[in-house]
């Protein structure tokens, strides 16, 4: 596969060019076929690459060309495909293809169909570039590219001002994180004399744990990760990003782009292992984000907003795994989350499609019989994300919680509570949407229908993956040998050597921990059932008063308002000051003052041009006298 690696990102790029140029000329069916099939072929090449890596165990290094050389910096445009990036290729192209296929049905009546598929293909290209790069600069290009595509896709319906604002918000908040990433790359070159992964990690392995330079580099990299992966304090852009079409939410904000920060830290695991302080920061920020987002999701009534805050919460779980050194567990959750969260977003899109673009769960209910495929597939995704065995989410979440327990009992307890909250708000979403009586309009009920096959087939495939995906990471306590862990071992082996022999929990203790987390999820499920099915409770209208805590949760703890008060308004006031005082009065005043002074002076001098010869002779005499006096003063 070494000779064909370059085709994996090139094919989606070709789809972008073809669909971009032919968006107004090509028929929609052809645009959809081109965009989807090129990603499918890329998936096929990724599968072949994966099996080559699995069979040989040897990473594939492909140096396409020497990019540039400046002083001691020599950068090659090169790809590195190892166990970590091979799995990411499968996620990006495999889930990406299913979302492309789904989009054919979902976006079929949209006027910007061709442009939408061009953007999707461009996103896949940049995401592939991000995970395939063999150095930090190629990764950064992909990193910036997916940020650009996120802006374009979130603001796809830019005629709506709120959607355009959401796109700008995502772009700006991502740039904050990207600055941290870029400074970290400069520091990496200054410290190691290279930005190639192979050179940096081999040199770093010989450094002392806790080195201040490594600490600064990893903290800056983590700043980049918080922006891209929506962690506190840079998380508020992701819920607003639901303004984009639902396939965008599934592709970018569930399966791929938001996991870029996780991938970057996992790729740089040697650096982070050498910075235990940074790992502590990551674990604290991760569990705080997971819990905070879960508390917000408890009261949301927009079906996509529930899933958005769920995504933020699950990303927090992944960061918790990274922070406690469970690199394999965190990446395992990336994999399973890609399956069940893409499924849930696409399922929500199917509901919205059937409900004639209605997203408020208070106006749904009783859809189980009307949308059977959507219901059963989303139920599978909900069970998986709740962490109930034997579905995929149970295995990956249990592994993170087990490592958290080893690291800190406090982190574990908060993690279990968050798992219970996750189960509650996800089943709340299911019960409000699919159970009880229909609460929408008669017109909506009349038009209720299951989605077309192009939308339901991806749901079924993702549901199957959500059921069986966890089998690749069955722990020894349950009779497995964690195939994913064995496969990824070469990637995380340098970190394992730095930390020494890892402590393993006894099987009996693992059973107890599993029982606690599953018990929390089931108790939350039963409570949600009692409240929303047996009790037939429906969230109150926006105009009605809520309990204080419910009000805080529903209004997202006023974080956006806090940012607006502390950051945006002072910056706006400072901008007005610079405009009115520094710019208008200072700079413009100086420039315009010089101009006006010249004009007024010229007006005065013009009066001397009288046309009278006698006056000119008189002025000449005065000039001669002045010159003589000046000469006299110089002599004396």
From TrEMBL:
The stretch of residues making up the signal peptide is none
The cross-references to Pfam families, in alphabetical order and at most eight, read: Proton_antipo_M, Proton_antipo_N
User: Where does it live in the cell?
Assistant: Endomembrane system; Membrane
Source domain of life: Bacteria
Chief localisation class: membrane
Segments passing through the bilayer: 30-51, 87-104, 116-134, 140-158, 179-201, 213-236, 248-266, 278-299, 306-324, 330-352, 373-391, 411-435, 456-474, 511-529, 613-635
According to UniProt, the name of this protein is NADH-quinone oxidoreductase subunit L
As recorded in UniProt, coiled-coil segments are: none
Every NADH:quinone oxidoreductase/Mrp antiporter transmembrane domain range: 135-422
- Domain (NADH-Ubiquinone oxidoreductase (complex I) chain 5 N-terminal): give its ranges: 67-117
- Please state the gene responsible for encoding this protein: nuoL
Keyword annotations for this protein, in alphabetical order, are: Membrane, Transmembrane, Transmembrane helix
Does the keyword Transmembrane helix feature in the UniProt annotation?
A: yes
The record describes its membrane topology as: Multi-pass membrane protein
């Amino acid at each position: 596969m070494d000779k064909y690696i370059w085709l994996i990102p090139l094919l989606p790029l070709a789809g972008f060019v073809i669909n971009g140029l032919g968006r107004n000329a090509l028929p929609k069916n052809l645009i959809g076929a081109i965009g989807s099939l090129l990603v499918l072929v890329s998936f096929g090449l990724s599968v072949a690459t994966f099996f080559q890596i699995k069979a040989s165990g040897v990473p594939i290094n492909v140096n396409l060309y020497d990019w540039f050389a400046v002083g001691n910096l020599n950068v090659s445009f090169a790809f590195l495909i190892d166990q970590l990036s091979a799995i990411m290729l499968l996620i990006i192209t495999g889930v990406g293809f299913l979302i492309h296929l789904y989009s054919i049905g979902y976006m079929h009546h949209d006027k910007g169909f061709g442009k939408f598929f061009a953007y999707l293909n461009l996103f896949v290209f940049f995401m592939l570039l991000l995970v395939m790069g063999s150095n930090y600069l190629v990764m950064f290009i992909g990193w910036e590219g997916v940020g650009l595509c996120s802006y374009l896709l979130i603001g796809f319906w830019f005629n709506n001002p709120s959607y355009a604002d959401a796109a700008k918000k995502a772009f700006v908040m991502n740039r904050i994180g990207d600055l941290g990433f870029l400074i970290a790359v400069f520091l990496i070159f200054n410290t190691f004399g290279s930005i190639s992964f192979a050179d940096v990690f081999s040199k770093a392995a010989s450094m002392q744990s806790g080195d201040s330079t490594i600490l600064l580099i990893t903290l800056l990299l983590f700043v980049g990760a918080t922006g891209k992966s929506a962690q506190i304090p840079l998380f508020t852009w992701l819920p607003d990003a639901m303004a984009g079409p639902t396939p965008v939410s599934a592709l970018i904000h569930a399966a791929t782009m938001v996991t870029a920060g996780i991938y970057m830290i996992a790729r740089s695991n040697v650096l982070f292992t050498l910075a235990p302080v940074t790992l502590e920061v990551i674990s604290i920020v991760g569990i705080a984000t997971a819990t905070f987002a879960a508390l917000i999701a408890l009261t949301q009534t927009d079906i996509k907003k529930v899933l958005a805050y769920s995504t933020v919460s699950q990303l927090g779980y992944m960061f918790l795994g990274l922070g406690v050194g469970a690199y394999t567990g965190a990446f395992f959750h990336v994999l399973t989350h890609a399956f069940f969260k893409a499924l849930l977003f696409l399922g929500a899109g199917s509901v919205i499609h059937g409900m004639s673009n209605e997203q408020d769960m208070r106006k749904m209910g009783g859809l189980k019989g009307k949308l059977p495929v959507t219901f059963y597939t989303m139920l599978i995704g909900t069970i998986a994300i709740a962490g109930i065995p034997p579905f995929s989410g149970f295995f990956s979440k249990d592994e993170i919680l087990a490592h958290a327990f080893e690291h800190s009992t406090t982190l574990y307890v908060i993690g279990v509570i968050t798992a219970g909250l996750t189960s509650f708000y996800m089943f709340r979403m299911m019960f409000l949407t699919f159970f009880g009586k229909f609460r929408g309009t008669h017109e909506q009920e009349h038009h209720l229908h299951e989605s077309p096959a192009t939308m339901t087939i991806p749901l079924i495939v993702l549901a199957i993956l959500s059921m069986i995906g966890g089998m690749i990471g069955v722990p020894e306590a349950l009779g497995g040998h964690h195939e994913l862990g064995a496969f990824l071992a070469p990637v995380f082996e340098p970190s394992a050597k730095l930390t020494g022999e890892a402590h393993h929990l006894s099987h009996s203790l693992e059973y107890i921990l599993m029982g606690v987390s599953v018990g929390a999820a089931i108790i939350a499920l039963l409570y949600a059932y009692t409240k929303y099915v047996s009790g037939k409770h429906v969230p109150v209208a926006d105009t009605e008063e809520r309990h204080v805590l419910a009000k805080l949760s529903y209004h997202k703890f006023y974080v956006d308002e806090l940012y607006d008060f502390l950051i945006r308004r002072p910056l706006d006031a400072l901008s007005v000051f610079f405009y009115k005082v520094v710019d208008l009065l200072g700079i413009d005043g100086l420039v315009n003052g010089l101009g006006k002074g010249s004009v007024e002076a010229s007006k005065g001098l013009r009066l001397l041009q009288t046309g009278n010869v006698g006056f000119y002779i008189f002025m000449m005499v005065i000039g001669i006298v002045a010159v003589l006096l000046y000469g006299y003063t110089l002599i004396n």
